[in-house]
């Protein structure tokens, strides 16, 4: 049988996810999001691993049921080995190892950052995949990275954040404005109604293709403190303009680096992923770059942008085809470069 059925497990941060793929096609992709972190305004690692422990079995059962696949039909188990929170990774890693051992089928380790990029190769009804070589940019609450992708397994990190991830920049700015966590989607929503040039925030000076977002957060903090001293209702009265200006600054930083990457490499195939790829502003800027600069840009379906097991499954399938299996002695790896 040429059909490979891969069960994939993702547990690197605060989403417990399981997916079943038949070759490059997703049959199911179940995600249990952990609501517990909302009240803390950010992910609490200890609580995340406990929630994974509770969620993993029901999530895997649901993924198999939705795919209408019996576990005896599975060809292999793919799992996220890293990077991520150690306690969270341990849950998925141990579960995947045990199940593979019990079913006597191969185990396949997956790097979470490679998976964000290879999510573009999931076969969907109308999706088109980038052609090699292409630039991948992963932008989320945990990551900000530009990668040159020469083929499925030849990737080179060209630049990444030196401090906060871009999603954190959105969320922390939103928090300073009193918006609930995660504030990124709300900043996007209000930004649509505001003037992106209303306020000026400094852009960081970072060499090459690396990013820095912690300075922006600090300058927004001082700006808001100064303005609310003069007018206690400043934020409420100007929320649209503040959001539009903050978002504009963040997008300028992202697009400036992408532009440099395109110029340096001569590659105009640009593939974006991660939760921040949902942002309407970045989507508009990419569209503009297609029209004015001749780029070809790609964004996967949103459920394959945020943390999900389907993207782990596509890497699992590609590795299966190459016979790249993993020994049972494998251990989770919190820091794990591409
Ligand atoms: O990929 P993701 O679900 O989780 C990880 O961080 O791995 O990304 C979540 C991040 C959050 O920071 C959230 O605020 C941000 O993506 N985000 C957005 C938007 N939708 C989600 N940021 C800006 N605009 C959006 N529309
Ligand atoms: Zn991620």
UniProtKB/TrEMBL annotation:
Keywords: Acyltransferase, Cytoplasm, Iron, Metal-binding, Transferase, tRNA processing. One of its GO terms (biological process) is tRNA threonylcarbamoyladenosine modification. Fe cation binds at residues 112, 116, 307. Belongs to the KAE1 / TsaD family. HAMAP family: TsaD. Its EC number is 2.3.1.234. This is tRNA N6-adenosine threonylcarbamoyltransferase. One of its GO terms (molecular function) is tRNA N(6)-L-threonylcarbamoyladenine synthase activity. It holds the Pfam family TsaD. Binds 1 Fe(2+) ion per subunit. It is an enzyme of class 2 (transferase). It is found in: Cytoplasm. Required for the formation of a threonylcarbamoyl group on adenosine at position 37 (t(6)A37) in tRNAs that read codons beginning with adenine. Is involved in the transfer of the threonylcarbamoyl moiety of threonylcarbamoyl-AMP (TC-AMP) to the N6 group of A37, together with TsaE and TsaB. TsaD likely plays a direct catalytic role in this reaction. PANTHER family: TRNA N6-ADENOSINE THREONYLCARBAMOYLTRANSFERASE, TRNA N6-ADENOSINE THREONYLCARBAMOYLTRANSFERASE, MITOCHONDRIAL. Residues 25-313 form the Gcp-like domain. Its cofactor is Fe(2+).
């Amino acid at each position: 049988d040429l059909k490979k059925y891969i069960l994939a497990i993702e547990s690197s941060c605060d989403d417990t996810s399981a997916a079943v793929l038949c070759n490059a096609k997703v049959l199911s992709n179940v995600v249990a999001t952990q609501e517990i972190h909302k009240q803390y305004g950010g992910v609490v690692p200890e609580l995340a691993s406990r929630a994974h422990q509770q969620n993993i079995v029901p999530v895997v059962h649901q993924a198999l049921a939705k795919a209408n696949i019996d576990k005896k039909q599975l060809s292999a188990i793919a799992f996220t080995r890293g990077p991520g929170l150690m306690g969270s990774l341990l849950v998925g890693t141990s579960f995947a190892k045990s199940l593979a051992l019990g079913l006597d089928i191969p185990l396949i380790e997956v790097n979470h950052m490679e998976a964000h990029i290879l999510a573009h190769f999931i076969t969907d009804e109308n999706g088109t995949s980038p052609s090699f070589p292409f630039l991948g940019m992963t932008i989320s609450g945990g990551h900000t990275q530009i990668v040159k992708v020469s083929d499925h397994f030849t990737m080179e990190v060209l630049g990444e954040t030196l401090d906060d991830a871009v999603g954190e920049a959105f969320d922390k700015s939103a928090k300073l404005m009193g918006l609930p966590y995660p504030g990124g989607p709300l900043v996007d929503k209000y930004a649509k109604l505001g003037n992106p040039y209303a306020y000026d925030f400094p852009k960081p000076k970072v060499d090459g293709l690396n990013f820095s977002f912690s300075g922006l957060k600090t300058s927004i903090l001082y700006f808001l403190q100064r303005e609310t001293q003069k007018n206690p209702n400043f934020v409420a009265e100007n929320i649209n303009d503040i959001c539009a200006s903050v978002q504009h600054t963040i997008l300028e930083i992202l697009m400036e680096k992408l532009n440099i990457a395109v110029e340096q490499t001569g590659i105009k195939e640009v593939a974006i992923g991660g939760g921040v790829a949902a942002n309407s502003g970045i989507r508009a800027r990419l569209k503009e770059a297609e029209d004015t600069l001749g780029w070809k840009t790609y964004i996967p379906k949103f459920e394959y942008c945020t943390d999900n097991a389907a993207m782990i499954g596509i890497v699992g399938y590609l590795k299966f085809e190459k016979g790249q299996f993993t020994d049972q002695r494998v251990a989770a790896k919190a820091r794990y470069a591409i």
